[in-house]
Amino acid sequence: MLNKNKKENLIISSALKMFSKNGFYNTKVADVAKSIGMSVGNFYNYFPSKNSLAKSSIVFVSKKLAMKLKYINEQEISSKQKINLFVKSYLVFLTKHPEMINYFFKVYLGNRELFCENEDCGFEFAKEFVDELKKMIDNGIEKKEFVNQDFFICFSCIAGILGGITFLNSENVLDKDLEFYVDSLSISIYKSISYPCE
Amino acid sequence: MLNKNKKENLIISSALKMFSKNGFYNTKVADVAKSIGMSVGNFYNYFPSKNSLAKSSIVFVSKKLAMKLKYINEQEISSKQKINLFVKSYLVFLTKHPEMINYFFKVYLGNRELFCENEDCGFEFAKEFVDELKKMIDNGIEKKEFVNQDFFICFSCIAGILGGITFLNSENVLDKDLEFYVDSLSISIYKSISYPCE
Amino acid sequence: MLNKNKKENLIISSALKMFSKNGFYNTKVADVAKSIGMSVGNFYNYFPSKNSLAKSSIVFVSKKLAMKLKYINEQEISSKQKINLFVKSYLVFLTKHPEMINYFFKVYLGNRELFCENEDCGFEFAKEFVDELKKMIDNGIEKKEFVNQDFFICFSCIAGILGGITFLNSENVLDKDLEFYVDSLSISIYKSISYPCE
Amino acid sequence: MLNKNKKENLIISSALKMFSKNGFYNTKVADVAKSIGMSVGNFYNYFPSKNSLAKSSIVFVSKKLAMKLKYINEQEISSKQKINLFVKSYLVFLTKHPEMINYFFKVYLGNRELFCENEDCGFEFAKEFVDELKKMIDNGIEKKEFVNQDFFICFSCIAGILGGITFLNSENVLDKDLEFYVDSLSISIYKSISYPCE
DNA sequence: CATGAATGAGTGTTCATTCAT
DNA sequence: GATGAATGAACACTCATTCAT
To answer: Which CATH code for domain C58-193?
Structure first.
């Protein structure tokens, strides 16, 4: 028998697909349960509420992304190369697990009320990923590879541009495979935050 | 007495605030109606359904944004200047009407199921804005001010970076006024899509 | 059309019957609604919750009983006669509206958790009746018709003995009509709280 | 290891506390099981259902009370003294085991649907206690110490008055210790069923 | 146009009970 | 006997929408 943690992940994996496809509110607890052959009642042995599943799900995704970024951050390469590796890693992941990325951009960013009780909750559930991204940015600034500017500008450039391509992809408007965009995207991102005419 | 169209806009204005603050699903038709002193029944004289209000709302926002961009596009200035004007215009608008921008980024992009019946609906309800943005991009490429690359890359850079700052702003994590970011953001956006070392 | 208050009373009347017969927990909101030809949703236009219906119901009963007792209290007769009138009035009421009395003794006294949030809520929802009973007792003590003793003793004698016969009646163990017990019950009650050998 | 019967009593003891405090319907089988460090599944090795636990519990209480009354009944003393002893014994028991008395008056009398399948089930589960009380009453009447009246009147007087003080006690409205009320209560009860001017 | 009472399908959650281990 | 994961029917409450007035 699967242990508790394994089963939780099984639920999350299925929920991510359903939430990202049909939205949190149009996905019923019964749907999630049934999708993995589990009874409704038993679902509640693993998550105390539908909402807590949403929260655990974003933590799950955030950790996955953080791991990939951490692996890149730990290498002794230039920031430019790091960005290239990250974009590639991100797009491969998006191809393989669109539900995770889409969950992040659609459900997490689009339905803040699910994740925030008070006004200023920030991105606490995506902390792990955001922190790792911060590391990359800080390191790039430190090494003078990135313009020494407001952190939030950098953050918007990296996360924003990737978010942009993600939305276009999820709406099926892109005419090429994601892989195709790796280089041009990394260059764009790099240009946006680095000094012109290096 | 207000004519039908005026009243529709009144409803939309109030709905935008509520939808963007609490989400579409947590805003009840009764709440919207009450917020402008209207009865529930009467609401349905102006919109056939809650969902149609959501659609009209995004068209409303898209038109507003398109107008601003159109005004900029019509000027005889460099693309670089256009981007600067657009960023400024955008951030001023975001300051004045966060509900509109947030509605666009959160409700519209985050709850696609509300606006898409089939799989490939694209951004039909934001068409006016997207088209105008396309004009700016195409013009910049034509004039060799932007790298002649895939349109979607450019789109992701412009809309993505602005989206990034928008999310940071709506989560109250920015420590300065939006105005502060105008120049650095426009430079970043411009750098991302233009040739290096101009 | 019935006004709001009339409809509330209609709901309460029906709920009293169902609650007292099958218990609060075995009576579904849908049952109550259906019993008076009302939809479930509409029920909630009159009461915010099932629990609030239970509370309103006991207030309703308490008021009815208080009224009867008040009418008796206002007469210029001896306490002995008051008790006789009250017992008669009570038993007639019990015959005519067993659901009200049974609701009081079974649901209200038997399911305190429904009516008490904190530990010491006392009998706040039956206040009107209890207050009127207190008046009768205080008056009898003042006029030296009742032994000058602890109020709670008197209260237990009056309410307790009536409660006793009420339970026997609701269990269908009594072999005679309630009317039959009027005199012996009033004498017993009177004896229990008055001086022996008057 | 405890034998089956001992464990049943252990369950009952804990259940009495929880049922009397929070009500039958707000006490979950899992709560009862956990309260004595037992698994849910194992609970069902001792009681076939939650409802049967409720029934066994009232029999348990009824037997305890019957025993005390039996001991008193067997003494060669006047009915007046018996009543005094019974009241004392009752109040001491109530002080020591409020859960048992409260279970009787609240859960058993207040939720008849739990104990009665048909309409006329009487007090079958409290038979032992009721029978013993009947013995005391019959004996008093026989010895002309009590008025020769309807049995149910006597029953209501004794059980009702004790029930009255019990409710007041369980609602924490009494300002003195229960012991304080022993004499006045026994006198009141005795007066209520005996001839005036003995 | 305007009202708001009425509808009723729908949903998150609970919990007594079962049963494989 | 003992465990606790699994079941699934049940229920309070919601809310978009309708419609009589």
So the answer is: 1.10.357.10
